[in-house]
Structure formats: C-alpha cells, structure tokens
C-alpha cells in the first residue's frame, strides 16, 4: 500500500539556525522558508536526491508541533510521510485493521495541498505516520 | 555534500510485531530479520520505492539502542542516514565546521558493511545523523 517516502519532518526550535546547518554544514539544497499559517508551521524544504526533509518551526499560538518541542527543546524527528495512491482506500484499510486515524478520520489538505491523514503513533511503533495521496 | 537518504531507522521493542505492522497494516515489502551481533541490533528492512526504513530491535546486553528504548518504550524514529561519496572528506568538513563526530571520529563499518560515522544530535537539530559512504 505505502509507496515512496514523501518526506521526513524534523521539528526545530530555530528554523534559521536549522536551515544553516543543513545548507552550510551538511551541504544540502534548501528552500526559502514558507509560512503555512493554516498548518501552524513555517517550513524549509531540504531537497535530497531521492526524497526530502522538511524542517518545521512553530507558527502562531496553537502550532501542532508546540507540544513536541516542549518535550524535545532541541528539536527532533517529528513524523514520516508515505505516499499512497488512494487516501480513502488507505484510511478504510487501516481502520479495518484496527489502526487509529487522528482527528475524525476525514482526510485534510496537507502542506502540499494534497489530501493527508495522520496515524496514531501508538499503533505504529511510536512513530507519527502521515499518509499523503499523490 | 549529503546525497540520498539511505534509510530512516526506527527503534522498536518488538521486532516481530513492528514487522507485522509494516507488512500487513501498511502493506510494505519487508525482509527477514537479520541479527547483526557486532552492531547490537536485529534489523528488518522495509523496502520502499525510493529509500528504506530499518526496524531495529536490541540484540545482546549492550545494544546501542537500549537507552533510547528506555526513554521511548513504544519505540520511535532513532536516526536518519544520508549517503556521502567520501566519508573522510565529509568527516573533515564537519569537524572543521565545529560539528561533533561520535566516538573517536574514525569511520566504522556500518550495518551494510560500508564506512559510517554518526554525528552528535545536539549539532543537528536534536536528530542523530548517520553518514554512510556508498
């Protein structure tokens, strides 16, 4: 069912410092920061040869990554996003298998403008999993 | 400098259960478990279209992932591995930039039999980074 790794998301307390680390120290190609107000994050895309890393900094008062950064003040790997062909079929298959979808189970438009769902970390080896229809 | 994402490593307390989750619930292709005694882990490779996830379970009394699982009993994302062309050049560039290499800085043979170094999470946004020469 799952296809490519679309991205690995890393939550960071300081986007400009994290971007410099990836660009200057690790020598990777990075995007300009993009504020995504409806998602409560500002994102920088680190473009790698086969996938991308997304550096996420909280934006606004109710950022979905705020609690994670309180627990992990230096930042850390926040979630992994796998591509699927059909988000509704994926959701139904997961629910039938007993896996929990976060929220009400309805796909939302994600940071790339495509439908996504998030899966409960407790059902996926402690890892927050995003599925994105591509 | 960094090239492809070689793998994302997820530490898990129960490899057989984690493998079933990736194979049966997420529908991914998984390998047989491979004990790597010299690395203190048993690994299952989850083969995705563009990269792989490695599920790691502690093996032996002094596994390098034991402390992580004590802090994260359900498991979680443990490190991300980027490919480099020249591990010594990468190491020297990172050290010149002030980044800390774990251990004595000498590349070791990693789980794939290729030279690797690990970088200090505090220098990389709270994320343990492995570099592998390919």
From TrEMBL, chains A, B:
Enzyme Commission code: 5.1.99.1
Reactions catalysed: (R)-methylmalonyl-CoA = (S)-methylmalonyl-CoA
Gene3D superfamilies documented for this protein: 2,3-Dihydroxybiphenyl 1,2-Dioxygenase, domain 1
GO molecular function: metal ion binding; methylmalonyl-CoA epimerase activity
Keyword DNA damage appears in the UniProt entry: no
Domain VOC: 4-134
GO biological process: L-methylmalonyl-CoA metabolic process
Top-rank lineage group of the source organism: Bacteria
Matches recorded under SUPFAM superfamilies: Glyoxalase/Bleomycin resistance protein/Dihydroxybiphenyl dioxygenase
Classification via Pfam families: Glyoxalase_4 (PF13669)
The protein's name in its UniProt record: methylmalonyl-CoA epimerase
Gene: mce
């Amino acid at each position: 069912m799952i296809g490519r790794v679309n991205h690995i998301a890393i939550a960071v307390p300081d986007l400009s410092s994290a971007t410099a680390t990836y660009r200057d120290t690790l020598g990777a190609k990075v995007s300009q920061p993009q504020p995504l107000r409806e998602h409560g994050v500002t994102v920088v895309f680190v473009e790698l040869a086969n996938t991308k890393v997304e550096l996420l900094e909280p934006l606004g008062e109710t950022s979905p990554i705020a609690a994670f950064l309180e627990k992990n003040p230096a930042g850390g790997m926040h979630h992994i996003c796998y591509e699927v062909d059909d988000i509704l079929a994926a959701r139904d298959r997961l629910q039938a298998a007993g896996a929990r979808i976060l929220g009400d189970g309805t796909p939302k438009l994600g940071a790339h403008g495509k439908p996504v769902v998030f899966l409960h970390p407790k059902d996926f080896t402690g890892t927050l999993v995003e599925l994105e229809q591509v």
